[in-house]
Structures are given as C-alpha cells and as structure tokens.
Amino acid sequence: MRLLIVEDEEKTGDYLRQGLSEAGFVVDLARSGLDGRHLAATGDYDLLVLDVMLPDVDGFSLLRGLRASGSRVPVLFLTARSAVEDRVQGLELGADDYLVKPFAFSELLARVRSLLRRGAAPVNPDFLRIADLELDLPRRRAMRAGQRIALTPKEFALLELLARRQGEVLPRSLIASQIWDMNFDSDTNVIDVAIRRLRAKIDDDFEPKLIHTVRGMGYRLDLPDA
C-alpha cells in the first residue's frame, strides 16, 4: 500500500514516515501543500494523510481540488485544529476521517488500516488468477491446475493478500499487520511457518513455483523470473 503524507512540521512528518514505513507501507512525504497537491495529482496512492495548516495551499483547499477532479482516494486529516466546525468542514469537503494532534501513533495506524480496508472493498474482484492458481473469494476456495486446495482461513487470507499484490515483495511486518493484526516481532517465526505451510499446499506438487522468498525483504507471489 502506498501512502502520501502532507505535513510541514519536520519532526511530525519524519515521525509519521518512519512509523508507517515500519508498519509495512510505502510512504511519500510532502512538506508543503503545493508539493502535496502535485504528488497527489500525479501519483497512485491508496490513502492521503493531510495536515490542514500548511504554509501555501492549506489541506482543505488541497482536498477540495482533489474531489473536484474526481479523485476518490481516502483522506485522513491530521491537524491541531480541533474545533467542531473545522471537523465538519473537513468531512463535508470529502475527508474520510479527522484526527486531532497530539495523537497516539497506534490510533493513527488503526485508522489508516480501517480506511484502507473500507476503501479497497468495493473494487475487489470476486476471482483472482495467477497462472493456474485460482481464488474464488466469495466462497473462500483455492484451486491449482483444476485441483481443489484445502486451506485454513488464515492460509486463505495470506494467499489472498499475496495474490492481490502479485509481483510485490511484502515485508513480514505488513503480512503480520494485515493477516494477524499484530506488530511484527523479529523473534517470532509465525510468518515463516505460515508461508512454509502455504507453499507446501500451493507449490510443492505443482509447476511453476509461485511463492518466492526475497532474502532480507519478505515474500512475493508471481510467476518465476524468466
């Protein structure tokens, strides 16, 4: 998932970028409204975190322009402006959530994840296919080469995450947060064990192999490199 933070306070911006990156997101940081407007208009983001009080184009104006252009990207306002009228204005302009500074990072992260789940749901296809692997999402069924694969609910959720992000290297921290809803602990091997069990069902008896380990980075599901 790719996020854009528009925040002119240097310490806050760096703190948000580091925390969200460690949570498994790809994060871009703009330190002005003008830069944020340009990145939001030209980049492909899954969610925007916008400050309201910016030195040039304020967050309300930035969002107003985005919505006028037809963008439906989820937006979380993060601001020191706590008055009810400010919150109402932000939501009426098309913001999806509004968090007041100072804030707990755990709450911000929970809101980010909630908005991403909410924003992704309407566009998810009912079926995913990679090579001869097929996922029937409504029925929670997986097949490989026409053969039904018996998966636990967690295994199916893990496979679905990998399939939706085909070709992307997913770090263990992202997998932990999305599938187990927990922060990644480097001392635990729960992710590696889950991948090993999934690979045994999906890959061991089939060709080509689809689940790949990217050493030091994470895992990806894709056709092997030519």
Layout of helices and strands:
Elements lengths: L1 E5 L3 H13 L3 E5 L2 H10 L4 E4 L8 H10 L6 E5 L4 H9 L4 E4 L4 H16 L6 E4 L2 E4 L4 E4 L2 E3 L3 H12 L7 H8 L10 H13 L8 E4 L3 E4 L5
Parallel strand pairs: 1-2, 1-3, 3-4, 4-5
Antiparallel strand pairs: 6-7, 7-8, 8-9, 10-11
Helix pairs in contact: 2-3
Features:
Arc Repressor Mutant, subunit A, 4-stranded antiparallel sheet, Rossmann fold, 11 strands, 226 residues, alpha/beta, 8 helices, 5-stranded parallel sheet, elongated
Can you tell me about this structure?
This protein has helices spanning 10-22, 33-42, 59-68, 84-92, 105-120, 153-164, 172-179, 190-202, and strands spanning 2-6, 26-30, 47-50, 75-79, 97-100, 127-130, 133-136, 141-144, 147-149, 211-214, 218-221. It has 226 residues and is an alpha/beta fold. It folds into two domains: 2-121, 3-Layer(aba) Sandwich (Rossmann fold); 127-221, Winged helix-like DNA-binding domain superfamily/Winged helix DNA-binding domain (Arc Repressor Mutant, subunit A). Strands 2-1-3-4-5 form a five-stranded parallel sheet, with helices on both faces. α1 links the parallel β1 and β2. The protein starts with a strand and ends in a 5-residue tail after the last strand. The model is unreliable at 120-124 (pLDDT under 50).
